[in-house]
Amino acid sequence: MEKAIELYGSAIKAISTSGVPLRSRPTFVYCSTMECYQSFGGGNERAVSYPFLGTVIAPASWQRYITQHELIHWFQFYEIGAVSTMMKPEWFREGMAYVYSGAPESDIPEHYLPMMKRYSDWHSEKSWPKVIEQAGHL
Q1: Which range of residues forms the domain containing residue 30?
Q2: H/E stretch holding 112
Q3: Origin, by domain of life (predicted)?
Q4: With the C-alpha atoms ordered 40, 45, 51, 55, is the resulting torsion angle positive or negative?
Q5: 135: buried, middle or exposed (CB in 10 Å: 19+, 13-18, 0-12)?
Q6: How is 64-77 classified by DSSP, letter by letter?
Q7: Which helix (H) or strand (E) holds 14?
Q8: How many domains does the chain have?
Q9: Among the four 50, 67, 78, 80, which has the fewest Cβ within 10 Å?
Q10: Side-chain-side CA neighbours of residue 38 (13 Å)
């Protein structure tokens, strides 16, 4: 339990320090067994976020960068809307989440690297209110 609390708190702090205006503190469940993870509907992914419900982290995924990645999805759900977020291009949804996750490049699937670049180029010098506004037009 201590490790889960530390991961969640340090991820919230890292996301806030990076400038992302995270206004929501979603519920996270850190499963220590695959049985736990699967009981929440998890499969082979590292984590799953359910809009309006919470996020479930798989037992092998207890890393701060995975928590940060999922917090970015919650930021998207909160600011853009859950359904609207899911309708955005993958380069936006996953590019943003990977950019702000702090994941080591060696642990980012290669096909997401160009999405991260595209998101970073698109975000560039935009303020967060402008990012949110323009995301509505993607």
Answers
A1: 2-135
A2: none
A3: Bacteria
A4: positive
A5: buried
A6: HHHHHHHHHHHHHH
A7: helix 2-17
A8: 1
A9: 50
A10: 5
How buried is residue 97: exposed, middle or buried, by Cβ count under 10 Å (0-12/13-18/19+)? buried
The residue with tokens 């955005």 is 88
Tokens of 46: 């590292």
Q: Are strands 54-57 and 28-30 parallel, antiparallel or unpaired?
A: parallel
| Residue (of 119, 111, 65) closest to 88 by Cα position | 119
CA–CA distance from 44 to each of 2, 59, 124 (Å)?
25, 11, 33
Helical axes 113-123 vs 90-99, angle rounded to 10°: 90
Give the mean pLDDT of 46-75. 94
Q: Which residues contact 82 (CB under 8 A, 6 or more apart)?
A: 51, 52
Q: Is the pTM of this model over 0.85?
A: yes
Q: Looking up tokens 């996301």, which residue turns up? A: 15
Residue 40 pLDDT > 90:
yes
Q: What angle is formed at CA 82 by the lines to CA 44 and CA 104, rounded to 5 degrees?
A: 45
Amino acid at 25: R
